[in-house]
Amino acid sequence: MTAPYVTESILDGIATVEFFHPEQNSLPGSVLRELAETITRVGQSEVVKVIILRSGGDRTFCAGASFKELIQINDAETGRVFFSGFANVINAMRKCPKFILGRVQGKAVGGGVGLAAATDYCFATRFAAIKLSELNVGIGPFVVSPAIERKIGVSATSQIAIDANSFYEAEWALHKGLYTKLFDDLESMDLAVEAFARQLCTYNPEAMMEMKRVFWRGTDDWDTLLLERAAISGRLVLSEFTKNTLAKFKTPA
Prior knowledge:
The chain is an alpha/beta fold. The protein has helices spanning 29-44, 67-72, 76-95, 111-118, 145-162, 170-176, 186-200, 205-215, 222-236, 240-247, and strands at residues 5-11, 14-20, 50-55, 99-104, 108-109, 121-125, 130-131, 181-183. The protein has a single domain (5-187, 200-205), classed as 2-enoyl-CoA Hydratase, Chain A, domain 1, CATH 3.90.226.
């Protein structure tokens, strides 16, 4: 696996959406766009009853924003558009009428934590530590924090957002409600995810759709809110502090 991708497969009512990027499953704009479009399309399929969201590989779930693209942002509009990619994915997950099961095999950073939080029920391994590292580079988890706050509360979200240099263990995320179940290895997690998805397929689709609407009550303003947050990140990524910090990650010619 060397090229980024987003794939979808449907079997017995279960849609599996998988994304991949060779740089620790980081998310450039192209992958974000395709991921949002895929989730929306699969969610509208009449043959799909439940969706599994996963990433490729057996280590990092998602390293968050693509540093290569962050480094290349030179104006506020480009920054807004880039961070809007995360907003569009979260909103696609929020509006999807089907339950989305998260499958987190390893570390989740920044936007990766946001993706996990936006799932409706999230499985993880004990290696799936989380970190909100945005403050380290001079911005903040503005776009993803509403989804994270909804899952683990403002206090826990502010703790990991301010302590931007620390990974929090998967057990901490389980205790706070980000994850629902932890597993010692990928095999046992995948068996549990499949079994749970198959069980959901036996339930009334209309009841699950109405339940999801209830669970996401109070988020109707996110279409506007998350895009406003994207504009904040797009502005801050141009700051001298952030530019100097990102310059350290440039690959020598």
